[in-house]
Design goal:
Blueprint lengths: L3 H21 L1 H31 L2 E7 L7 H12 L1 H4 L11 E7 L2 E8 L4 H5 L6 E6 L24
Antiparallel strand pairs: 1-3, 1-4, 2-3
Length: 162
């Protein structure tokens, strides 16, 4: 049978040895932590710049249906699958830059249907998903709705909306 005092003394000795090792190598540990943090910060910065570059190169298309347009359930299902595969078709961009956007607007009693997605997936977005629908390339930045800012002179901003 093992003496409990020997086990306790060996545990205390192991703790002392570990403390002495850490004390002797504190500069190496600090340098490794510093280089690790710097490497992590560099990767995060690169990933953000990559996301900004992918977001700047987005492709936009307008879908113009004919007056006889009538979508079947199979076409809707196929088109939904096509939109779901846009992130895979765009390679491996950051998650916030790989999304596709569907925007439906109405201007002058005319419904406009826009698709927007990563530039690398533009061939997939350009494919017509429905019969009797024409796909037209548009500028991604030009079709953003212009909203005039409302400014109240003399009014101080509040802490937030409740």
């Amino acid at each position: 049978m093992v003496d409990p005092m020997e086990v306790l003394n060996s545990a205390v000795a192991a703790r002392r040895e570990a403390g002495a090792f850490l004390h002797r190598h504190v500069w190496w540990i600090a340098a490794a932590a510093t280089f690790g943090a710097a490497g992590w910060a560099a990767v995060v910065g690169w990933w953000r710049r990559r996301a900004a570059a992918v977001l700047a190169g987005r492709a936009a298309f307008e879908l113009l249906p004919a007056s006889t347009f009538e979508a079947s359930a199979a076409e809707v299902t196929w088109f939904a699958g096509q939109l779901a595969s846009v992130p895979a078709a765009s390679g491996a961009p950051p998650r916030r830059a790989s999304a596709s956007r569907v925007q439906i607007t109405c201007e002058d009693n005319r419904v406009r249907y826009f698709l927007e997605g990563p530039g690398r997936a533009q061939s997939l977005l350009r494919m017509p998903g429905y019969q009797d629908v024409e796909v037209i390339a548009t500028a991604a930045r030009l079709r953003q709705p212009a909203v005039d800012r409302i400014r109240f002179e003399g009014a101080q901003p509040t802490g937030g909306v409740r």
